[in-house]
């Protein structure tokens, strides 16, 4: 179990809960980077497929990797970077994330706007936790639920909260909404057992 105790891993998993039948892994190539679903497959078979001009996307002999405790340990140890799919198959989630970018007006920094949002959460007695985004030019405010909430209920919680913040400040913030919500309903198209929309709902941890 490396340098992590069972209680530490249990605590981490109790907060960052999502689908366990799939997870994403970060890739980097030249100056590009991103996340893609992790797969299990035979490397010898895939090498032959790639030698004939194929890609992982059109390689049929693969299946989605399950999120195991070892992969979480790898992530926490810095051996690899993984992402969660927080939107469960029943369209519920254990948390929501308010995403802030650098203000376009330049009147307030994202740090100030995140602080306003977190203070509003505190007024409503909603525990909220701020982290800096990977780019360094924005922030994410995490709100965790005690049980998995339906997506509609998550949005119902988030929208009035954002409206309240705007009323308090009198101005719009550089808020982008729930981070893993792309603005369209779940797609019916299935890609190796993971819907196209669910792939877009991945979030970094």
Q: What this model shows, in words?
A:
The protein has 205 residues and is an alpha+beta fold. The protein has two domains: 82 residues, no CATH class; 87 residues, Alpha-Beta Plaits (2-Layer Sandwich), CATH 3.30.70.100. Helices cover 32% and strands 28% of the residues. The chain contains six helices and twelve strands. The strands form four sheets. It has a four-stranded antiparallel beta sheet with strand order 2-1-5-12, with helices on one face. The chain has a four-stranded antiparallel beta sheet with strand order 7-8-6-9, covered by helices on one side. A hairpin with a 2-residue loop joins β10 and β11. α4 packs across α5. The longest helix has 19 residues. It is globular, with a radius of gyration of 19 Å. 22% of the residues are buried.
């Amino acid at each position: 179990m490396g340098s992590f105790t069972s209680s530490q891993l249990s605590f981490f998993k109790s907060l960052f809960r999502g689908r366990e039948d799939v997870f994403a892994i970060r890739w980097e190539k030249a100056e590009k980077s991103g996340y893609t679903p992790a797969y299990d497959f035979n490397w010898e078979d895939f090498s032959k497929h790639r030698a004939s001009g194929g890609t992982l996307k059109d390689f049929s002999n693969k299946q989605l990797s399950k999120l195991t405790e070892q992969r979480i340990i790898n992530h926490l140890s810095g051996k690899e970077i993984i992402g969660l799919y927080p939107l469960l198959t029943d369209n519920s989630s254990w948390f929501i994330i308010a995403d802030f970018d650098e203000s376009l007006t330049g009147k307030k920094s994202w740090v100030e706007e995140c602080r306003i949002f977190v203070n509003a959460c505190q007024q409503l007695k909603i525990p909220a936790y701020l982290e800096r985004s990977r780019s360094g030019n924005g922030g994410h405010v995490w709100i965790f639920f005690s049980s998995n909430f339906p997506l509609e209920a998550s949005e119902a919680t988030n929208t009035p909260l954002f409206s309240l913040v705007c009323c308090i400040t009198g101005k719009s913030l550089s808020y982008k909404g729930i981070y893993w919500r792309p603005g369209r309903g779940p797609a019916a198209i299935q890609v190796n057992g993971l819907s196209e929309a669910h792939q877009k709902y991945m979030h970094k941890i």
